[in-house]
Design brief:
- The protein is α/β, with parallel strands linked by helices and 414 residues long.
- The protein has a domain of 127 residues.
- 25% of the residues lie in helices and 23% in strands.
- It contains twelve helices and 18 strands.
- The strands form two sheets. The protein has a 15-stranded parallel β-sheet with strand order 1-2-3-4-5-6-8-10-12-13-14-15-16-17-18. It has a three-stranded parallel β-sheet with strand order 7-9-11.
- Helix 11 links the parallel strand 16 and strand 17.
- Bound molecules: 2-acetamido-2-deoxy-beta-D-glucopyranose (4 copies).
- One 2-acetamido-2-deoxy-beta-D-glucopyranose binds next to loops.
Amino acid sequence: MDRLSQLPEALLLRIMSLLPAKDVVATMVLSKQWQLLWMLVPKLVYDDSYQDIEYGRFSRFVDRSLTLHEAPVLDTLHLKLGKTSCGSGDIRVWIKAVDKRCLRELIVEFDSNNSSVVLPVSLYTCCRMLVTLKLNNAVLVDVTSSFSFPSLKNLSLVSMKYPGDELIKTFLSSCPVLEDLVVKRCLDDNVTIFNVRVSSLKFLVLHNKGDPDSGFVIDTPSLECLDIFDNSGEFCVIENDMTKIVKADVCFDNANAQQLLGSISSVKRLYLCVPFSKDAYPVGSVFHCLVSLTLCTCETEWLNLLMCMLRDSPKLRALKLIQDHSFRSESRPCWNEPSAVPECLLTSLETLEWVKYEGKEEEKELAAFILRNGNCLKRVTISSKSTDLKEKYEILKELSLLSRRSPTCQIAFN
Ligand SMILES: *[C@@H]1O[C@H](CO)[C@@H](O)[C@H](O)[C@H]1NC(C)=O
Ligand SMILES: *[C@@H]1O[C@H](CO)[C@@H](O)[C@H](O)[C@H]1NC(C)=O
Ligand SMILES: *[C@@H]1O[C@H](CO)[C@@H](O)[C@H](O)[C@H]1NC(C)=O
Ligand SMILES: *[C@@H]1O[C@H](CO)[C@@H](O)[C@H](O)[C@H]1NC(C)=O
């Protein structure tokens, strides 16, 4: 312990920031130096499941340590709560205790899916310096007074319940510099239209959970990264093209897929799984920046979608096909030789990676087509889905006999 005490104070504080609050406060008994030091730790994590402590003691401990804690800046307050006895009142007191401390990061998470702890109204008005706010599994209430989060950049709302659509609008419009938003919805969240209209937003994660009568409206013209997951057919309306988009992960079983894809046609790296939407392709779009495409092959439509994407992605360099979900349809896609060779095959496509290749007719045709026309192909990597060695061997033999246009193309099998 003496050797520890000789470390520079700044380093000790960093080490202590990584400990749960209970251990941090435990350092008080170690020595005089430590007794003063813990009060300066800039990050406090309170976990009510820690060492099975009884809730009353836990809450008194949080009260006292927050009152004693003296750092002028408290960067992070992280509350991990699971005990049913935790109520709104406690959280109100703790938020009040840190109100004057320039708190930058506040995380309040309840670990049961089913928690219905109502967050105090003071959440909206305290902590004007907050940069990050993460809430998990709790209930937000309506607030009549106006509020704002002038510094908030990262906001995460996971499995939250709301007092209705209006609060979300008010909340997001009171975050003028928000850059990063994560929304994972749960059933019964009491929201019909989740409006995401944030002109400063750069990163957006939207996961839906499956109420077919609800959906999203997205208006985020500065977005750079999108991760959208919706397999329940909810609606999703895009109000503005996202011309700054760089990366998108789209797993979308939704009638609005076409509009979504059309609005992200400037994307550079795209993951796409649009299983059931027959008309997902935004005819007339050109993916003029797309260099890397990963396409999920879990439904009949994948082949058609892929051929459209190849046709309209003149700079594509890397193509990956992967069966991320088990093949769900009875009917297999049908190969139609395109009337023209896509430009990317002639001038840019360098790698093809195919995960869970099955050797079905249309797969063979596609592989043959790409090898026959891929002028710049350098590497083709195929992993077969089959575990049967003999079958695997047959698949590989067939592939290795295909003619290749690019003399330097290497085929690797996994
Ligand atoms: C919480 O939700 C997860 C996933 O939705 C589920 O696997 C888990 O069983 C749930 N736990 C409880 C306590 O309901
Ligand atoms: C969820 O909450 C409801 C009502 O509060 C309760 O009846 C149910 O048992 C809870 N389920 C779980 C998994 O905790
Ligand atoms: C906010 O989110 C972005 C992107 O996820 C991340 O890079 C950044 O570190 C986050 N900032 C804070 C303060 O958590
Ligand atoms: C659900 O939202 C409506 C408004 O859309 C509101 O009147 C109602 O009180 C909300 N219910 C709950 C439980 O918050």
